[in-house]
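Dear H.,

Thanks for agreeing to be a second pair of eyes. The structure we're designing against is below in token form, covering all 696 positions.
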């Protein structure tokens, strides 16, 4: 699969894997977090088994995205096999079961659930859900109570992975109707009463998990209010979404990661037309319930399994999503394949339909391959999203953030401005654009954008935090502190404003107050290496360098690729006079972040000091090697050329000395940190060398 060559994407993968300190491998602390209510802050869901599976991948594959993609792909393959096994066991038909499983395996609508690492919850939950159906089939066949217990266990595991299959007891009742036809085996008065009573433990389980899910989504602030999405709007969008899903099933060529909710722009004429379509299809399925019961079963499977995500409880700003069809797609596929099989009883027709089915599956596989390509990286993903949904400010914002990740700031700015054309009152677009233009030095525009954002929503934690950053840029630390504190009050669980507030307090010479903020941050996010990096810096301010070094080392144990912590540890070693150790840290930091000019300058300075130390210890080769490296990193470094000139003089290499002295005194050198006295000394050394050379 091409996904094995793909990386992570910006959408949610940072929350689920790349920037989640608890998903670095299986550990006691990580497992405790996965099962605790704290994990709901990350994703607005309580799904501990999903976290555990991602932690296991991190243990097995480290940070390699290929391993995570491989697990998703493996689960999808297992799910396709389970679809076959369940249908084969339920109906006895091998050929039709193979066709349904093949449609399930290659349909483009399933690409999102497999190619997106964050959707591990989807394929994992479905694996246990399908296993529950298989266990239920054994219960019906063997009449042994242990199988019903295992069905309940599989349901619990499914809901611990993703609370999607809360409709499973109803799905089992549909299977009792067809193909198991259990109601015909019972007395008329006892039929459905017995079948429902048999599943009472399952109903209790789904009620409990439904309550937990609503709590988690509310705690994560994911559930939209009735003021934002009134009930009539939700019902109308749900009706349209059902028909849209059907259209995507038969024409999966216009798929994307995000479909924006139409909101008040929803066409009620479209709602009415969609309602007619649903009513007609429901009527036809009901009419055929005796001669063709699979039609009603498949149709109700589709309608029912989508209920938790159809938007009656609106979570997020999307109208629908491809991933929501992962298991609901099975119902229509069963109905279609069994209907086609019944209509093709004659051998010539059957042969033609087999060829048509093969062509259909091959065509879907080709389209799925095209859809997979949109998940190659974040730029491909959101470029496709804005093609499909050009009126979505979310898609433009996400594309802008992806451009920022690759340092294409001009394109990022263009995307944010497009988002504001689509939605002039978009808080995300205003804040993203403000942060970008401020980093580019346009403080005035950043201020204006954030004033607009705060006028729209004075309680936006992000806007208040960014406004504090503008005050920092303007040199007004007191107002910056005021806005950072306001951001903390609005969202006490967000560590970012505490980080920024502690930085301002440090700059004001208040390390004790900065330390208090960092301690609060540590409580919120004890597995974040950035907090230990910041704590180390404050401890050094408090004249506790050994404690600071320990904290830097702890941050680096948590994330060995944390360039800022490596650089800070190098700075500490440099200040302590341990230039060789400083060089080692700066080299590592520079490899991790070669575009960081600050690290480059620090490495150059450490190399010079280490070179001087080597020269003083009569290690001229080491000294020359270190200074050569400093010049290679920054050819415009005055100090490196000056000291190389002096070393060359001492060794009698006068031509080389002349070259370095002339380079040091060239107007092309970087003179920002060069004092007049430094220049005077260089002129003196060069002049002295020339005078001696003339005498010789």
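And this is the sequence the design step returned. I haven't edited it by hand at all.
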């Amino acid at each position: 699969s091409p996904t094995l060559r793909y990386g992570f994407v910006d959408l949610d993968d940072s929350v689920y894997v790349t920037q989640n300190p608890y998903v670095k491998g299986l550990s006691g602390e990580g497992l405790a977090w996965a099962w605790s209510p704290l994990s709901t802050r990350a994703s607005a869901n309580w799904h501990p088994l999903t976290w555990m599976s991602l932690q296991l991948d991190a243990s097995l594959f480290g940070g390699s995205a290929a391993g995570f993609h491989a697990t998703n792909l493996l689960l999808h393959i297992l799910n396709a096999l389970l679809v076959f096994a369940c249908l084969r066991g339920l109906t006895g038909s091998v050929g039709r079961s193979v066709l349904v499983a093949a449609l399930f395996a290659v349909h483009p609508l399933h690409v999102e659930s497999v190619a997106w690492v964050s959707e591990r919850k989807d394929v994992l939950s479905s694996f246990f859900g399908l296993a529950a159906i298989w266990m239920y089939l054994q219960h019906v066949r063997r009449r042994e109570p242990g199988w019903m217990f295992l069905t309940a266990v599989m349901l619990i595991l499914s809901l611990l992975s993703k609370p999607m299959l809360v409709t499973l007891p109803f799905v089992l009742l549909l299977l009792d109707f067809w193909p198991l036809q259990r109601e015909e085996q019972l007395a008329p008065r006892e039929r459905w009463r017995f079948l429902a009573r048999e599943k009472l433990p399952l109903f209790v389980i789904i009620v409990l998990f439904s309550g937990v899910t609503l709590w988690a989504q509310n705690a994560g602030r994911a559930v939209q209010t009735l003021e934002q999405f009134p009930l009539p709007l939700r019902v109308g969008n749900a009706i349209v979404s059902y028909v849209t899903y059907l259209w995507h099933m038969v024409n999966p060529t216009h798929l994307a990661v995000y479909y924006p909710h139409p909101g008040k722009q929803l066409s009620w004429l479209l709602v009415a037309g969609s309602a007619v379509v649903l009513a007609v299809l429901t009527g036809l399925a009901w009419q055929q319930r005796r001669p063709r019961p699979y039609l009603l079963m498949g149709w109700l499977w589709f309608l029912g399994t989508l209920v938790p995500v159809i938007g009656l409880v609106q979570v997020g700003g999307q109208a629908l999503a491809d991933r929501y069809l992962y298991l609901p797609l099975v119902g229509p596929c069963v109905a279609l394949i069994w209907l086609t099989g019944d209509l093709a009883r004659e051998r010539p027709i059957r042969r033609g339909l087999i060829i048509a089915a093969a062509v259909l599956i091959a065509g879907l596989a080709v389209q799925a391959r095209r859809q997979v390509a949109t998940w190659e990286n974040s730029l491909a993903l959101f470029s496709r999203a804005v093609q499909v949904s050009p009126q979505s400010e979310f898609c433009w914002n996400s594309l802008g953030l992806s451009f920022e990740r690759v340092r294409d700031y001009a394109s990022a700015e263009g995307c944010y401005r497009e988002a504001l054309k689509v939605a002039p009152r978009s808080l995300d677009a205003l804040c993203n654009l403000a942060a970008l233009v401020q980093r580019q030095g346009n403080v005035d525009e950043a201020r204006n954008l954030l004033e607009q954002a705060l006028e729209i929503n004075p309680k936006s934690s992000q806007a208040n935090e960014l406004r504090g950053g503008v005050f920092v840029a303007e040199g007004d630390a007191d107002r910056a502190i005021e806005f950072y504190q306001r951001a903390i009050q609005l969202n006490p669980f967000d560590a970012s404003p505490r980080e920024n507030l502690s930085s301002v307090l440090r700059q004001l010479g208040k390390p004790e107050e900065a330390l208090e903020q960092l301690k609060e941050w540590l409580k919120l996010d004890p597995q974040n290496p950035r907090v230990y990096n910041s704590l180390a810096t404050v401890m050094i301010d408090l004249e506790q360098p050994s404690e600071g070094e320990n904290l830097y080392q702890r941050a680096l144990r948590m994330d060995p690729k944390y360039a800022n912590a490596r650089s800070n540890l190098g700075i500490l070693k440099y200040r302590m006079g341990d230039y060789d150790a400083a060089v080692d840290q700066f080299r590592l930091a520079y490899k991790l972040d070669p575009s960081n000019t600050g690290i480059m300058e620090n490495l150059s300075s450490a190399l010079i000091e280490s070179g001087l130390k080597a020269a003083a210890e009569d290690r001229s080769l080491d000294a020359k090697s270190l200074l050569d490296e400093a010049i290679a990193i920054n050819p415009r470094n005055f100090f490196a050329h000056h000291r190389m000139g002096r070393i060359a003089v001492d060794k009698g290499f006068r031509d080389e000395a002349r070259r370095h002295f002339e380079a040091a005194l060239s107007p092309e050198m970087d003179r920002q940190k060069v004092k007049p006295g430094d220049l005077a000394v260089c002129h003196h050394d060069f002049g002295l060398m020339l005078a001696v050379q003339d005498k010789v």
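Two observations from my side: The chain has a mean pLDDT of 92. The chain has 35 helices and two strands.

Warmly,
E.
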